[in-house]
Specification:
The protein is α/β, with parallel strands linked by helices. The protein has helices at residues 32-38, 47-56, 72-85, 90-99, 109-118, 122-128, 157-164, 179-192, 203-214, 229-237, 254-263, 284-293, 306-309, 343-356, 362-372, 375-394, 413-419, 435-444, 464-467, 473-478, 495-506; strands at residues 196-200, 220-224, 245-249, 266-272, 297-301, 319-323, 337-341, 399-403, 426-431, 449-450, 460-462, 485-489. It has a 7-stranded mixed β-sheet with strand order 1-7-6-5-4-2-3, sandwiched between helices. 47% of the residues are buried. Its cofactor is pyridoxal 5'-phosphate.
Length: 509
């Protein structure tokens, strides 16, 4: 492919060799448009190429080049470039700007409605939402391009002034937004039935940003004993520095929640459901009503459920958090997090995020987008395998106890089967043995990886007493983390293979 010269004083060249008088940012070498048609559109990971593609289709319906006699596709693209090059006229300039990736134009309500009418299921939303209709980047590539840029340019000072005064939309700077990430946020909002979503660098940072943006200094929060340990550490160690106090309750203790709401000016109740690692479930509709009656917000960390299995916003929650590293991305290859909910709340988190940072890299956004296209397939497979595995383990003589919300023996089974459409891919259980016997079991499995995290295609297994709580025997005792506890994240492998592997490993207990 010919090299594109980026010089300050250059002009567009068409295939016929005619030069246009209007100065622009790029010189197109001979036959470049045809080469662009066949090659460059396949990967728009460079911002310059993405802008070229956007300009090429700026005046074409549905983002595709106009067909024409004689010249075919290349002639249509060339004429589109010619039209873009005459952008000295105000109307043409506006059309060009609205087509390039840095033009942050609100998605028309008609497009949103069309998407809702077209994509009626989670399966279709996971594949197409945020991309099939109303995608910002104008290209006929099926996949959303990666836009690698740190900043976005303005045509002139007036356009910048218009941006500052709200008449022109732009991302302006990479910390404030990105077209690839925006497509991801739209997809997540569609799946969670949320007004807005902001994606950030990790699930942990999503929790930090949410708490920092929405809990005032001197405020009070309520959380649960069973949760991700690093979230608890942040709340215990960092929030008091802002004068924020905290009440910690057992997940199912509604009397304790009511008491905390009655006796404190509670800003927010933050809880996982299902929780980590015992998979306790909170009645979202019930606690939403309890919190709202006292003016408190409810934020649900729904990472263990995924939006396929649970939509907490439809049950009354104000916000939902995900570690997108887990089921959302689903391939154990990227870290990210998000906050979804009402726009008035998410916008406050977004503003805090713009100031502090914690930006999701656009390449990571692309990986998460790609992973989400199979989210419904992976989660359905993991639901089925995990339920069968939980049932198998519950009947095994070398297993003392199984924690899985899809089992009637689970204390919140009645809640889970009401508010979840599937019970997730994580099964926690206690081996009928001591610390060393449990270690021998872990060391004997052949298929699952011995690692932290969960929700990926590969099965993962760990002993929380070592993996998460090795530095604190006291906290293990407080939170019920026994030496023989196992957390097993089911991947997408065959059930019989996983079962047979666990059977042979249990022989060492």
């Amino acid at each position: 492919m010919a090299t594109v010269s980026l010089t300050p004083q250059v002009v567009f060249s068409t295939e016929s060799g005619g030069a246009l008088s209007s100065a622009t940012i790029l010189r197109f070498p001979p036959n470049f448009v045809r080469q662009l048609s066949t090659k460059a559109r396949r990967n728009c990971s460079n911002i310059g190429v993405a802008q070229i593609v956007a300009a090429a289709w700026s005046d074409c319906p549905a983002g595709r080049p106009k067909s024409g006699g004689g010249g075919g596709r290349a002639r249509g693209v060339a004429s589109s470039h010619a039209a873009a090059a005459s952008a000295a006229a105000a109307a043409s300039a506006a059309a060009e700007v609205s087509a390039i990736p840095n033009a942050k134009v609100a998605q028309p309500s008609a497009v949103v409605q069309a998407e809702r009418n077209l994509l009626g299921s989670d399966a279709s939303l996971a594949v197409h939402a945020g991309e099939r209709l109303g995608r910002r980047i104008a290209t006929d590539a099926i996949t959303t391009p990666v836009v690698n840029t740190s900043a976005y340019w303005f045509n002139n000072s007036q356009e910048l002034i218009d941006f500052k005064e709200g008449r022109h939309a732009s991302f302006e700077y990479g910390r404030y937004g990105n077209p690839t990430t925006e497509a991801l946020e739209k997809k997540m909002s569609a799946l969670e039935k949320a007004e807005s979503t902001v994606f950030v660098a990790s699930g942990m940072y999503a929790a930090v940003a949410m708490l920092s943006a929405l809990v005032p200094a001197g405020g009070h929060i309520v959380t649960t004993t069973d949760c991700y340990r690093k979230t608890r550490i942040y709340m215990e160690n960092e929030l008091p520095k802002r004068g924020v106090s905290m009440t910690v309750i057992r997940p199912a203790d509604m009397d304790a929640l009511q008491n905390a709401l009655d006796n404190n000016n509670v800003s927010l109740f933050f809880t996982e459901t299902p929780t980590n690692p015992f998979l306790r479930c909170i009645d979202v509709e019930l606690v939403a009503n309890m919190c709202h009656s006292k003016g408190a917000l409810l934020c649900i960390d729904s990472t263990f459920a995924s939006p396929i299995n649970q939509k907490a916003l439809t049950l009354g929650a104000d916000l939902v958090i995900h570690s997108a590293t887990k089921y959302i991305a689903g391939h154990n290859d990227v870290i990210g997090g998000c906050v979804s909910g009402r726009d008035e709340l998410v916008s406050k988190v977004r503003i805090y995020h713009h100031v502090v940072g914690g930006v999701l890299n656009p390449n990571a956004a692309y990986l998460i987008l790609r992973g989400m296209k199979t989210l419904h397939l992976r989660v359905q497979c993991q639901n089925n395998t995990a339920l069968r595995m939980a049932q198998f383990l519950e009947d095994h003589p070398k297993i003392a106890r199984v924690y899985y919300p899809g089992l009637p023996s689970h204390p919140e089974y009645h809640i889970a089967k009401t508010q979840m459409t599937g019970f997730g891919g994580v099964v926690s259980f206690e081996v009928a043995g001591d610390f060393d016997g449990t270690r021998r079991f872990i060391d004997s499995v052949k298929i699952p990886y011995h690692a932290p995290s969960f929700g990926g295609c590969e099965s993962i297994i760990d002993q929380p007493a070592i993996m998460s709580y090795w530095d604190s025997k006291e906290q293990r005792d407080i939170y019920g983390i026994k030496d023989n506890l196992i957390r097993f994240s089911i991947g997408v492998e065959d059930f019989e293979d996983l079962k047979n592997d666990l059977v042979q490993a249990l022989e060492n207990v």
